[in-house]
Amino acid sequence: MTPRSDVLTESRTKRGDAGDGRALGARITRVDGLAKVRGAATYSLEHRPADLAHAVLVGSTIAAGRVRRVDQSEAEKAPGVRLILTPDTIPALKTASNWLGERPSEGPYHALTHEIGFQGQHVAAVVADTLEQAVEAARLVTIEYDVAPAVADLRDSRAGAGTEVEAMTIAWGDAEAALEAAPAKIRREYTTPREYNVPIEPHGLIAEWQDEDHLTIWEPSQWIAGMARTYAEWFEIPYENLRMISPYIGGGFGSKALAYSYGAIAAQAAKLLGRPVKLAVTRPQTFTAYGGRAETRQEIALGATLEGKLLAIHHRAANETSTTGTWVERCGGTIAIMYATPNFSSKHRVVPVNTVLPSAFRAPGENPSAWGIESAIDELAYEIGLDPLAIRLLNYAEHDHQANLPWSSRQLREAFAAGAERFGWSKRSPAPRSMRAGSQLIGWGVAAGTYPMRRTPGQAIVRLLADGAVEVLSAAIDMGQGTYTILAQTAAEALAVPVERVAVRLGDSSMPWAPVGGGSQLANLMVGAVHKAALAARDELIGLALNDPKSPLRHLQANTLPVGDGRIGDLEIGAFLAAIGRDHIEVLRDTFAENGKSADDPFKTYTTITGGRTTTDNGYSAHSWCAHFIEVRVDEDFGTVRVSRVVSAFDCGRIFNPKLAESQWKGGIIQGIGQALLEEGVVDRRHGRVINNNLGDYLIPTNADVPDIEVISVGVPDFHATMLGGKGVGEVPIVGVAPAIANAVFHATGKRIRDLPITLDKLIG
Amino acid sequence: MRNFAYRRAGSVDDARRAAAEAGAMLLAGGTTLLDLAKCGVAAPETVVDITHLRGLDTIAHDPSGVTIGALAKMSAVATDRGICAHYPAVSEALWQAASAQLRNMATIGGNLMQRTRCAYFRDPVAFPACNKRNPGSGCAAIGGVTRNHAVLGTSQSCIATNPGDLAVALVALDAEIVLGERRVAADAFFLLPGATPQREHAIEPGEIITAIRIPVSAAACNSTYLKVRGRQSYEFAAASAAVGMEFEADGRTIRDIRVALGGVATKPWRVHAVEAVLKGQELSPEAIDRAAALATEGAVIHGDNRTKISLVQRVVARAIINRKPRGIA
């Protein structure tokens, strides 16, 4: 019989937890939490190599045009200045491949260019002995421009209609004809502004060359392998010679998965100077050194029967991209799968404007897509006179209509039921403006969310050490979601040791491969890899016990040889290993086979985004689901909206650590509150510049804006989705929050806001 | 780096002399100075540290009023029992200002000297034109994004909103700013931009704020500060009002009323017109609405800030209603 540790006996399973309450599934506090609150967790930018120089960037103050001249004469004379890089002086690098593994060109890459495509684009970098010297010298660099006309944003009259992205077209049936014939219909436009990831830890790096061919980068990274590849290719050194280190990440939300030009600049400076260089982008530069969520526009037409049954969904979307590149904020995701409809048509366009290239921000695509459809279905409910929850259940998709496949699991009906019960939805007064407390109008809104399962193989090393402790090694990352913790739980579960005996080491490219920590895939794929490696380590241990000529346990049989709590049979593991002349057992495993992928090209699998499975590749369509029930209070005179209650129910399959999953869900909901009510990059269209580029003016929720949030898990283990039955947790909670709030605001006030954020001027103006 | 001289003032007189020198700036809580230095607006040649000066952080109540030392922290004043009892608008304004961290650092004197949040003022590299920073250079805000800019007290030179909360309460309660020997009414201490928006306060070289004096009054005892903003905390006002009222013995006729506005004007904006029409009147919803409409007399809209006009009228009305005696409709 296997000995059970304290953790294993602590059963916390309750209905809907979808965790089994053992080590994997237990409600354990994050293992790195104490180090973080004590300041003992050393983040990448806190690394302090000797002789460190500091780089500071100079940003463009025009949105379009050309650098005519850089005058660095004053800056050069400033104390401590060691190097000034400009478009005239920066050496060329090799163009790196993109995240698909394709090289856009075989030509050179210049991290600073004369051509200016957006405000804040780096035009020079100053490196000095101290940060203060570099800051001051950067002020002394003057730049002359030839200014060209700029397109400020998607709403700029000069922006035009852009280009259709044919790969985004989704269609079945005949949506236009069905819409024309539908007895009930609505046609509305929904928009979202530029939104920014604003992680509290700024982006940046420390670059240090060991010799001409060996570079180490300390940089917060959601994707060790992908970023390491970019740096290696830029500098034309073997991938193995590039070491990327990112032990902790102070928030990324999608923005720390790629190497950006400032990284090339810092690494070039380090090479030119022969000393390590640190570059931390400033808070204002976090709005221009990389992109946030692109501004979007969606026109949605719904056709339905008079009873509210959908007949057609017609969807035309567009997002801004940069004149410097293409980003598709795919707005057709949620709308294509959320409801059953016999006729569907979605097309998407991208419109180049003068902004930094937009990028991934929590639930890219699904988030704005849900904003559109979850607002529109609500409008249709009022149009027809149906309860907003009833119309969602009436049009419940029993299978994936887009892929025409069964769901791997879809507990969305259960999520609606559990959320509605806890929220008290049945007590809702249907008419808008019918609930009030003094000057506060009260509104209740509901909306659903979803996020697809992305699945890439992973790799991990599990070591059993002589003292009975266990080590887990992987180049996976922890940006706060709890990777350290759940991987410790996984190894503890498989090896029957207490979680405290497992040490997890992450965030280092010298460790086994992991793909991007994004797309809500990392927890499931790494739990799978560590579980497999840990079981293999256990098997190896047992095999040695039964077969090694020196083993004192040789006389036993596998079924009478318990392993756990640092022991094998009646021996300490250390004593056993000593007896057979070993000091540890180490096992490396990957999960190519379990994910049905060829192991031919691990480099490509892990350094590009092409190594993953599709959402539907095994005959099932796999997604996470959620339902948000939200109460708002709107001051009728002032138009101020406060979220006063949130109940959200989630189907994320099996939950490996309910405490951490709940924390992620709540974080996503809070970010959704910000998106609904506060967040907006404010563009001065005369200059094409985002002017609220700081945390005093780019508003995110404070604690006072966050009510009590109740989260409920209704998931069940889903082995069609992932190896151990979990589904993605991190992205889905933000999806649907903004429309739930907008729907509640309509219920409170009778005013439908279709343009985020819902600010007071839109309600009383 | 851009060096500056650091001088630790030995006394108030020493600080006064040091601060009079060209390029000198006082360091008290530092929350504004460091912020402005980081964004390139402030570049002092000498920083005169007064944080340690003794006796300047007291809150002294007497029968005719209260004297608050200039170095008293915002959080200390907000929680002072006498302030809460006799000048609630002051406490409420402070509680709703900044963040807990800033309130624990920032001083009362420094709070009055804070600069505008105008995005164009705060980004000198991208927007060289700013008459406040660089007189005669123009105003980048006019014609730009002006949702948060002033509708009252603007000029062709400047439309930047005064960001203060405390200052609005002080102006409503007829406080005085004590500059050593000289005293200036709070309302006069804050200057209209006119053609000289670089001059924001009626303070002369060689003067420093040593204290704030608030006189006792029945209106101050029955005062409130109402701040409206999109975010519940840590945001500047979209519109705010400080209101203090005293009633006749009948409990419904207004004997004395003080009203000042924040978030909508280039300085804390006392509205005597509102006070005049209500004084001697019985409080009624109609009277309140009629008076509140006068709050924005002379308002000028710049681009996106139209909402401020109706909003601040509603804020004034609500603040008055919040301070009316019980039982009055």
TrEMBL record, chain A:
InterPro entries: Ald_Oxase/Xan_DH_a/b, Ald_Oxase/Xan_DH_a/b_sf, Ald_Oxase/xanthine_DH-like, AldOxase/xan_DH_MoCoBD1, AldOxase/xan_DH_MoCoBD2, AldOxase/xan_DH_Mopterin-bd_sf. Residues 38-149 form the Aldehyde oxidase/xanthine dehydrogenase a/b hammerhead domain. Signal peptide: none annotated. SMART domains: Ald_Xan_dh_C. This is Xanthine dehydrogenase family protein molybdopterin-binding subunit. Gene3D superfamilies: Aldehyde oxidase/xanthine dehydrogenase, a/b hammerhead, Aldehyde oxidase/xanthine dehydrogenase, molybdopterin binding domain. Residues 1-21 are annotated as: Disordered. Residues 7-20 have a biased composition (Basic and acidic residues).
TrEMBL record, chain B:
Keywords: FAD, Flavoprotein. It comes from the Bacteria. Gene3D superfamilies: 3.30.465.10, CO dehydrogenase flavoprotein, C-terminal domain (3.30.390.50), Uridine Diphospho-n-acetylenolpyruvylglucosamine Reductase, domain 2 (3.30.43.10). The keyword Nucleus does not apply. InterPro entries: CO_DH_flav_C (IPR005107), CO_DH_flav_C_dom_sf (IPR036683), Diverse_Substr_Oxidored (IPR051312), FAD-bd_PCMH (IPR016166), FAD-bd_PCMH-like_sf (IPR036318), FAD-bd_PCMH_sub1 (IPR016167), FAD-bd_PCMH_sub2 (IPR016169), Mopterin_DH_FAD-bd (IPR002346). It holds the Pfam family CO_deh_flav_C. Residues 1-219 form the FAD-binding PCMH-type domain. PROSITE patterns: FAD_PCMH (PS51387). SMART domains: CO_deh_flav_C. This is Xanthine dehydrogenase family protein subunit M. It comes from Dongia sedimenti.
